Amino acid sequence: xxxxxxxxxxxxxxxxxxxxxxxxxxxxxxxxxxxxxxxxxxxxxxxxxxxxxxxxxxxxxxxxxxxxxxxxxxxxxxxxxxxxxxxxxxxxxxxxxxxxxxxxxxxxxxxxxxxxxxxxxxxxxxxxxxxxxxxxxxxxxxxxxxxxxxxxxxxxxxxxxxxxxxxxxxxxxxxxxxxxxxxxxxxxxxxxxxxxxxxxxxxxxxxxxxxxxxxxxxxxxxxxxxxxxxxxxxxxxxxxxxxxxxxxxxxxxxxxxxxxx
Amino acid sequence: xxxxxxxxxxxxxxxxxxxxxxxxxxxxxxxxxxxxxxxxxxxxxxxxxxxxxxxxxxxxxxxxxxxxxxxxxxxxxxxxxxxxxxxxxxxxxxxxxxxxxxxxxxxxxxxxxxxxxxxxxxxxxxxxxxxxxxxxxxxxxxxxxxxxxxxxxxxxxxxxxxxxxxxxxxxxxxxxxxxxxxxxxxxxxxxxxxxxxxxxxxxxxxxxxxxxxxxxxxxxxxxxxxxxxxxxxxxxxxxxxxxxxxxxxxxxxxxxxxxxx
DNA sequence: CAGGCATACTCGTATAGACGAGTGGGCAAG
DNA sequence: CTTGCCCACTCGTCTATACGAGTATGCCTG
Lengths: 261, 261
Prior knowledge:
Helix content of chain A: 25-40%
Structural class of chain A: alpha+beta
Oligomer: homodimer
Order of helices and strands of chain A: HHHEEEHHEHEEHHEHEEE
CATH class of the largest domain in chain A: Alpha Beta
């Protein structure tokens, strides 16, 4: 065990590239080439210290680069491991089509079942509250809204956190204000209430998570979030719902179909 | 200058939260509350060492957390600054509509001009090459493809890097294989060649950038990329182009309209 | 054989010090 | 006044050391 297998090369002392970057480069390349496979343990800090003849902080700096890239994850007491690329969940753009709604189950549950995963919905909160500036603008200057918060899990792993906002004059006193909105979800209820849906607008951003998002989604470091804001419009052009969704980016691929007209 | 303005509190020695995290928390909160504004300089490492009575590495650890979150950026010799949230570029889902194409200018140029920014296209490369497994699959098992690579800049800042892949039997010898594809871009040429476009499929992922992406997009640390793969289908259902796009996530909001049918 | 403990190995946190390198301002020489 | 140098301040990199805490293993004891 004195010398690491020839998986890793030597440092170039003449290079102006910082040592900890050189080490990170070599590890990254070894991972990319499959020398270290998904879930596999990297050499320990001590082994790399020995192999490269550098101090421990330097090795740790290298690891922290790779963590920032989402390539590896450290586990206290065990080692540093190559992060598995988790199976991703595809969100098709037609998931809110009326025909799906008519089957009664929510899009999330249906899709997860189809993929053979165990879906779960969590931390449901339904309450009236003051609209933020942004939500108010999107809903057309409403002051207070009904907020429906929930977290989605797949095989026990939280992957998505979503909040729906609805104007009180639409939602108050209806089943939409109940924890369980009934078959087909709130879109089905909206249509029953005479708010026939015309189209959705979706805005997509990606960014690094806030600490609270890291917590609720149990995100590894180096995993961004996809922030999706969907507004539902009825046939009169009125916005009837805004849904604010934060997704673990390593769990999702969004998919859209656009006409070429 | 002996004591920092009361912008920052004290450490809680009884807390089990690591000191460098407590410091990061305080700085983050101060930034969120606007105590430090966009572009403003944070206290220097030395000042924080003094204020909190910790070692320099501990302060640097705190900064590295905030950098990982994309909240701050260090500038060598100057200080650590609150990252400005750059103005974002919206990509509408109808940007490839035929009516836009008929005006002759590319979507990027038109949109940027409209937003009052100075657009630029860069590092153009057009060549035939072997298709990767993924591209080959998407294009329907083609072996070799025409690849068109280009980088887009906005007011001098690179924001997007894109590669279009086309089957050789469609593109070879046409103006599509020229550096300048002519007015309306390659979609206009495809239609002229009889490949009438029917629809597009877009796949969206978000992830941390690779080192080479950091370089070509000049990304600050803590900025994810949006990875968009668009496939264009003609009216016969044949995929005629795959466009692989990597965007700086802090420069873009994607926007889609979906029918509620 | 089963349970529990000791131990070695892992990463996490923190200190202290050293030198390098980029930036900007002030001062001195021309 | 202008030029150029020096210096103070900034972050970047690296070393060496120490202790804490989580994990796994194997041995020892009952």
